[in-house]
Amino acid sequence: MVRGRVVQVRGVPPLRRHHDPALDPYLSAAARILKRRVDPSDDIGRHLGKTCELAFGFGGGLGAWRNFDDSDTHSDADIEGFKQEWRRAHPATTRFWRRLEGRIKKTIRTGQSDTLDRLAFEFTDGTLYITLLSGRRLAYPEAHLVPGKFPDATDVAFMDNARGGWAETREWFGTFVENVISATARDLLAAALKRINAAVFAICLHVHDEIVAEVPEDFNDAEAFRRLLVELPAWAAGLPVAAKVRVGKRYSKSKPRAGVQVRQIQTADLDLEEREFVDDF
Length: 281
Hints:
Blueprint: E1 2-8, H1 25-34, H2 43-56, H3 62-68, H4 76-89, H5 91-110, E2 114-116, E3 119-124, E4 127-131, E5 137-140, E6 144-147, E7 154-160, E8 167-171, H6 173-198, E9 202-207, E10 210-214, H7 222-230, E11 241-247, E12 263-264
Antiparallel strand pairs: 1-10, 1-11, 2-3, 3-4, 4-5, 6-7, 7-8, 9-10, 11-12
């Protein structure tokens, strides 16, 4: 069984490997906060960095942190400090949040089409459309601006059936950032699935950002599988995408036990750990 994971990276020099803690976003985030080096073996430090990335990556703060870590290990003041440190370290990301929010609200307010790099915005017959890099469109029916949570702020309201009924929902910029990024990641994964299937790999499942295929016992060309994973569609030109490939007897998320051999492909441009989405398209 061969398992490949597509990961998006931010412009990292291709010849640097992920065992450099500076290239692991969880380790680097923790190192900035703890003011010390954090190595892959430091589970507590890495967990802190991972929580920062997951909680703050789409604009979240204290509430998002508590969703990922309800241990009360850190005070509210600590978490606010972590958030500010993370944002200072990611100026292009925070700028993208605001630019995306501005385009969405302007499109709804004026009814005029607009763009943000390779994203396009359109407001037609009361529906907000965001066209992704792939050409696929996200639709937000009956979109309109409503008063936000904070003074002088506005949110976007639209009709949605995500909660099991057709009802109005109000969302802030973080939701739209997550929608655009997750949808683009989905399109990259879908394109990879089609390439791998056409190459006669027997795909048996995919889990989040992973693709799993059954291969003969003597399979020895995991690099070919990796190349199919990272090949970019024309619409994705310029997006830095890498992948990790693992070959084993069964699919597993756990670490292999002592004495169990698992082959993991090590090449200069694939062995990068998870990275935040490219800051600007």
